[in-house]
Amino acid sequence: ALLLGVTGVGYLIFVASISANITVTPRVQPVNGVFTLTAKPGIKEMDVNGPAVPAGVLSSTQSGTQQGAATGVSGCVLQIFECKQTVSYADVDNISNKIIPGLKKHIVQDLRTQVSTAGGTMVGNIFYPDPNISSDPPPHTVNPTVSVTVSLQGSVEYVKTSDVRSLASTLLKHKLKQNYELIDNTMQIGQPVIRGVDQKGNVTIAIAAAGMSDYRISPGEQMDIKNHIKGKTIQEARAIIAK
Question: Residue 180's CB: how many other CB atoms inside 10 A?
Fold first, then answer.
């Protein structure tokens, strides 16, 4: 009887001491979207509710000088005799039109360098106001040649790539279902695409983002699972966990 009693107690202690480590792999599902942002020159911080990011403005000024022949005439007698070679407005226009394309090329190169240094992305087109043109000597001056100097400024908006990526990441997380979290190392963000610019300089940008998300099991849910499967057979426990 004593032996039977000891054996029975030992069995109960053995059963009570049985435990198992169970690993539950959370559900994983993709999340993606194409988000429309606005780059605004008038704001200083990222606006999630907009959604909007600050837009900066960079500028570059380039100058160039070129000499050409004066093709105008003045002081003619009977419109034929004693005509003098004279600088005309057409001469200044023709020479300045030859200078401007080269200046624009240098401006584009300089602005791209500035944007890259700032860690940004150029948005919209480069804006060129009217150039500053001067000639030596001025028009209507009797002279066989004329030297034309053109000063041209170009400006462009840009956004910091880090701002755009950060906002796209935040908007992507807003699409997650309840209790899901984004797996950061799976996130992919595309290149911003310019959709348009309004009269105020606000630039509409579209950007795609995607990633994988997994369900996060809360401590309360873990305890609930433990309580439900306690004392169950393996088959029963698996059915409860699956549910």
Answer: 19
